[in-house]
Every structure is written in C-alpha cells, then in structure tokens.
Design goal:
single chain; 391 residues; alpha/beta; Rossmann fold; 3 domains; nine-stranded mixed sheet; seven-stranded mixed sheet; 13 helices
Length: 391
C-alpha cells in the first residue's frame, strides 16, 4: 500500500466505503465491484485501497477472528503478524512478570502491541516503515495508553520501558534474509538488549540452536500442530529452570512441555503396539527424549523423531497411531499387500527415508474401501514400512 492509498483510505469516506463493501474473498469478482464503485464516483486510488483492505480483512480472520473487521493491514504485515491466540500468550507472560510498560520494537501492524495494551500495559510501539506505522496507530487507537512511533527499533527505544518485545524483520528488498546479521534489527543487537533488560524476541522456529544465548528460555509455539514461532525470553520474563519449552495451542486447549534444556535421547527399542509422532514444537525444542520418558516410550531410531510404546499413550504432545503390522520396504510388495487389505485411501508419512509420498501413492494404484496410514521410516537404521491407524 502506498502512502497515497492509505491517506485516501483514512478519511471518513474511505472508512465508510470499506465498511459498506464488507469482506471480499480472494476468488470474488472484483471487476464488477470496481466498476460499481467507480461508477458511484469514487477515486481509483480509494477503490484500490478499499478492495485491498477488504481482501486482507477476509484473510486476517484466521489470525484475528472477529477483530479483523476493525483492523487495517498490509500484505507483508498480515503475513508476519502474530496470531491473536499466540499474542495473548505473549502478553500473559509480561503480565505475570508484573510488567507495567513495554516497548514493542518493530511492531509491524501492532498485533502484539494490541495484546499488551488489552491487559492494561503502557505500550510504545516503534515501526520504521511509515505506512505500517500509520496502520499500527489506527489499530491501537482504542487504547489511550498505547502510542506508535515512526522510527528505528534500537535508536528510538523508550528509556522508561520496563521490558522489551522484538520481532526482527527477516525480509527486505522483496526477499527473505537468511543471515541474522541482515535482519532489522540484527539479531546480535537484539540479544545484546535482551541481556540488559527483560525481553521477549519472536523468531522463526527453524533458528539454529547455536545462535541462542546462554541463560535464556527458548519456547517453541505450535498452533493446531503447525509450528509458528520461537520466542526467546530473558530476565524476569524467563522462567526459572525452563531452558527449553514446547507450547501447544489448539482445540484441545493449551499444553506445555518444559525442561531445563535439550533432553537426552531416550533408549532405542523394538516396535511396540503404538507409534507417537511428537508435535513439531517438541521436535524443534529437542524434547523428544523428555516426551518419550513421560509416556514410557522408546525411540525407533536414535536419529528419527518417532516414539513407540506398548500401551496407549495419553499425551497432548504428539499424534498417536495404533500399529497394524510392519510391512516390507519394497514398492512391489507394498502394492500387492495394500491391495490384499482393501486399502484405497492411504495417508503416507515419511521420516528418515528419501521418498516422495505423492508419487508413491500414485504408483501404488490403490483400490478398495479401507483407509489407513503408512509410516515410512527406519528402525535402528533399517528401512521399514509400518501400517497404522490414527488413534
């Protein structure tokens, strides 16, 4: 969105028109809508801005629910924004630590700042992009204790903020930056501030563990089994004895697996009656061994994130499967044996083997009324196929 489009949108006419247009789906016939709005005398830049926002609001429902209907977005800002449920978890951490004022440094469209402000904290949100800062100011307007500064995350950090929140920008110039030194602010500078003041740092979940500083809490977060972020907590925001954590949010509620640090691997053993696929947050946090011991399980292979148990596992930290049988890792034999079992619908999960599940499914040419899951993996280094059913 250009500054001109934003100025056109942030007028009584623009905001009224946005409400009148309502949600617009990605596959909607926008040509007809554009023609109608232009025929009504609305300027081209206003029509473009309104339709862009209407589409973004529709997309934003998955992250912000009904709150999306009163917010403004940029495409990049929405893509990078924290989900509402996750932002609430962040804000809760600050609140439980007794933080009364927080600086959101690199606030984007203001998703986390909204969560902080909703819990009564004083918020200064800093954003270097002019359009994004204006949109954040609009989104935070209902909260008088929140203000937005168009400036640099490090240079314009308010001195009186009790705690800091960073979400370093990992994109720039139309591409994603792999080197943390190229992020804005650079990761080393962010961690330097985190060493001086209680801080939360939102990062991508695939961050190299070697980049994590000593003495922080690293918490991986998944939403409905999708790993969405890593948060590094320092100072009073880091929990004592919690070096690694996996936080799971979903329809089953909120669950967290916490350990002092990366967990030692569990023992490797024979295939049992059940398989457990740990949640991605558990895998990223290197807590597979911790989970295995909690459910009295063992590893299938020391390098692969499958746990096996002899009794039905009761855990929210992984998906359980009941083992039907172990099959040979041979495509021709698999094709024959699956057909003999009448399996026509097959989910294929692979870990530790070089297989394209979609291509394999096509080559198997399955027919039948039964459904099952096929796990392609290794047991103590040996490739195998395990026919299972979801529990």
């Amino acid at each position: 969105m250009t500054p001109e489009e934003l100025r056109a949108l942030l007028t009584p006419e623009g905001l009224r028109l946005l409400d009148e247009v309502g949600p617009v789906a990605a596959d909607a016939d926008v040509v007809r809508t554009v023609s109608r709005l232009r025929a009504a005398g609305h300027a081209p830049e206003l029509v473009a801005a309104v339709l862009t926002q209407a589409r973004l609001r529709t997309r934003a429902r998955t992250r912000f629910g009904e709150f999306a209907e009163r917010m403004l977005f940029t495409p990049d800002g929405l893509e990078q924004a924290t989900r509402l449920a996750v932002a609430a978890q962040h804000a809760g951490r600050f609140s439980r630590a007794g933080v009364a004022s927080v600086a959101d440094l690199g606030c984007g469209i203001g998703a986390d700042a909204l969560a902080f402000a909703s819990l009564g904290m004083r918020v200064v949100a800093v954003e270097r992009d002019e359009v994004t800062a204006a949109i954040a100011a609009y989104n935070l307007a209902p909260f008088p204790e929140a203000r937005v500064v168009h400036g640099d995350a490090l240079a314009d950090e308010p001195a009186d903020a009790e705690a800091l929140w960073f979400d370093p920008a990992r994109r720039g110039g139309g591409r994603r930056h792999a080197d943390p030194a190229d992020w804005s602010p650079p990761l080393d500078a962010v961690f330097a501030r985190a060493a001086a003041k209680p801080t939360g740092v939102k990062l991508g979940p695939a961050l190299d563990h070697a980049l994590l500083p000593e003495g922080v809490e690293a918490q991986w977060v998944s939403v409905n089994r999708e790993v969405v972020e890593l948060v590094v907590w320092s100072g009073a925001l880091a929990r004592e004895g919690a070096g690694r954590a996996a936080l799971l949010l979903g329809s089953a509620g909120v669950h967290e697996l916490v350990a002092p640090g990366p967990a030692a691997d569990a023992e490797v053993g024979a295939l049992g009656e059940f398989l457990v696929e740990p949640d991605g947050a558990v895998i990223r946090a290197q807590l597979i061994g911790e989970l295995a011991r909690r459910i009295r399980g063992r590893m299938l292979d020391e390098t692969i994130a499958w746990i096996t148990t002899d009794a039905a596992p009761d855990t929210p930290f992984g998906q359980a499967f009941r083992v039907r049988e172990e099959l040979p890792f041979d495509e021709r034999k698999l094709k024959r044996m699956l057909r003999e079992r009448g399996i026509g619908t097959l989910e294929i999960k692979k870990r530790g083997v070089d297989v394209d599940p979609a291509s394999l499914r096509t080559r198997l040419g399955l027919r039948g009324s039964e459904a099952a899951t096929l796990v392609l993996t290794r047991i103590a280094g040996r490739r195998t196929a395990i026919l299972v059913d979801r529990v």
